[in-house]
Amino acid sequence: MTDTKEPSLIQSLIPVIFLIVLLSVNVGMFGDNALDGSNQIVLLLSGAVAAVVAMRLGFKWDTLQKGIVKTISSAMGSILILLLIGSLAGSWMLSGVVPAMIYYGLQILNPTIFLFAACIVCSIVSIATGSSWTTAATVGIALIGIGKALGISEGIVAGAILSGAYFGDKMSPLSDTTNLAPAMAGTDLFTHIRYMAFTTVPSISIALVLFLIIGLTREVTIVATDTSEILMAISGTFHISGWLFMVPIVVVVLIVRKMPALPALMIGTLLAVAFAVVFQYDKVLEVGKSVAVNGMFLEYFVNNFPGFTYIFLGSVQSLFGDIAFITNNDMVNELLTSGGMAGMLNTIWLILSAMVFGGVMERAGFLKRIAASIMSLVTSTGSLVSSTVGTCIFFNVTASDQYLAIVVPGRMYADIYRDRGLAPENLSRSLEDSGTVTSVLVPWNTCGAYHSSVLSVSTMAYAPFCFFNLISPFMSMFFAFAGIKIRKLTQKAEPA
User: Fold this and answer.
1) How far apart are CA 292 and CA 299, in angstroms?
2) Which residues pair with 338 in a beta bridge?
3) Residue 95 CB burial class (10 angstroms; 0-12, 13-18, ≥19)
4) What is the mean pLDDT of each run of 10 residues along the chain (496 residues)?
5) What's the confidence (pLDDT) of residue 295?
6) What is the pLDDT of residue 199?
7) Phi, psi of 375 (to 5 degrees)
8) Nearest to residue 67, comparing CAs of 367, 410, 429?
9) CA distances from 11 to 150, 408, 412 (A)
10) What torsion, rounded to 10 degrees, do the Cα atoms 414, 418, 422, 427 define?
11) Residue 211 burial (C-beta neighbours within 10 Å; 0-12, 13-18, 19+)
């Protein structure tokens, strides 16, 4: 095996500096279109720079490639979920589930308390499901549509959705990150959740107050005061019924009963297709006819099995491709569109590019070296927690994955917390207060890319309004510097 040299701090930072500089230039030139492919190229180029530096230290390309493959493999679950979410969104649009949510939501939610209510609703759903991703892809999509119909900025609405979704994700025992953080720190799940509540509840409380203030102080636009045209356009296009809510209810129940996300989402997708045939038969035929192309085999099926043919075409099209329903209202036309699985491919491209960069950085030891240099600045409990928070955020930015932002710092800091007489729940709380919640604020992170794609709102547009996600890291550091709820190790509390 070829001997390799330990990277210096400067060598470790070269790819990161290259990434930050080129991303800044890229975003400045491409603007909102940066995620359409140029950011992916920047990540790949940064990975190439990291590989060049690594090979000068003695690393062989095969070794680096294995690191890339391993990192991509860790993201495959997320990629499969993304594809299914695309199909879920398409089938829920075709079946009328999302239009029904928008229709009833417009009548129930007052514009003044909409942001406040949206945050609470997403908190409840996320706690029940343990997934911020599922919450955003189901309830979140409907709330974006309702907010748009009420004349509220998409960025603010997405901020309220994600604040609630990530609060619930953190506090749910069903969440993967909520289980991962205590496992890395060396404490148990429910001790972690109880201890995390000390910083999490104040953070979400402040966020809710801010959303309420925005709702009370913003001017209600003409769009928000007159929703009758929107309601008529939706009801004139789809058959709206309360029975349609059985589809999201089934998905939530399945996830609460601990069914894995992939089969639960698949069941929700197929059930929505069945509901589409029952409740929106004409629309299914309409979509099927719009995508039919001339051909001998298609002509045979149309002549002999016209109903089945167009139902098949319309249903499958909603799962993989673009569908759009035209009404006499331009705003409603924007709401009644979906891109299916194909709409998620750009996000998957971004994730794969980010994993290439993160894989080289991790395998070459660059990330570990940078984090180790941060450790030299630790002098107190406050600075230790701050270093943990900073390291987690750093990994979210550079490794582009929230799991790496929890696992690597968790392994790095576990012994240090214990050596300083601090209970492991201090570490697990810090990991979640920073690693979990800030991932959604980074455009090229798997979470940022996912939510931006699902909600159709750019990361830069919603990030300033993700109050919970922005407050949580500072709340964690405040508690540490103030010495509030910093549990010390005792013989009884010390993990085995």
Assistant:
1) 10
2) 323
3) buried
4) 81 88 78 73 91 94 92 80 84 89 76 89 80 82 84 92 93 79 82 91 96 83 58 89 91 80 88 95 91 75 83 92 86 79 83 84 85 76 91 84 80 80 91 93 87 90 96 95 86 41
5) 66
6) 95
7) -60, -30
8) 367
9) 51, 20, 20
10) 10
11) buried
Contact predicate 373/412, CB 8 Å: no
The tokens 């060598």 sit on which residue?
11
Strand partners, 337: 324
pLDDT at 495: 41
Annotated domain spans of the chain: 81-275+324-342, 280-323
- Is the distance from CB of 68 to CB of 383 less than 8 angstroms? no
Measured distance CA(248)–CA(315) in Å, rounded: 18
Q: Strand 323-324 vs strand 337-338: parallel, antiparallel, or unpaired? A: antiparallel
Strand partners, 323: 338
Q: What is d(CA 174, CA 152) in angstroms, rounded to the nearest whole number?
A: 32
Sign of CA dihedral 384, 386, 389, 393: negative
Unique residue bearing structure tokens 């070296």: 369
Token pair 């059930």: residue: 271
Question: 346, 394, 390, 348: which is closest to 367 by C-alpha?
Answer: 394
User: What is the model's pLDDT at position 338?
Assistant: 83
**Over the chain, what HEC string results?**
CCCCCCCCHHHHHHHHHHHHHHHHHHHHHHHHHHHHCHHHHHHHHHHHHHHHHHHHCCCCHHHHHHHHHHHHHHCHHHHHHHHHHHHHHHHHHHHCHHHHHHHHHHHHCCCCCHHHHHHHHHHHHHHHHCCHHHHHHHHHHHHHHHHHHCCCCHHHHHHHHHHHHHHHHHHCCCCHHHHHHHHHHCCCHHHHHHHHHHHHHHHHHHHHHHHHHHHHHCCCCHHHHCCHHHHHHHHHHCCCCHHHHHHHHHHHHHHHCCCCHHHHHHHHHHHHHHHHHHHCHHHHHHHHHHHCCCCHHHHHHHHHCHHHHHHHHHHHHHHHCCEECCCCCHHHHHHCEECCHHHHHHHHHHHHHHHHHHHHHHHCCHHHHHHHHHHCCCCCHHHHHHHHHHHHHHHHHHCCCHHHHHHHHHHHHHHHHHHCCECHHHHHHHHHHHHHCCHHHCCCCHHHHHHHHHHCCCHHHHHHHCHHHHHHHHHHHHHHHHCCCCCECCCCCCCC
Which phi and psi angles does 379 have, rounded to 5°? -130, -15
Closest-CA residue to 166 (of 443, 472, 375): 472
Q: Which long-range contacts (CB under 8 A, 24 or more apart) does 304-310 make?
A: 310/284, 310/285
Please, which residues have CB within 8 angstroms of residue 225's CB and are 6 or more apart in sequence?
Answer: none
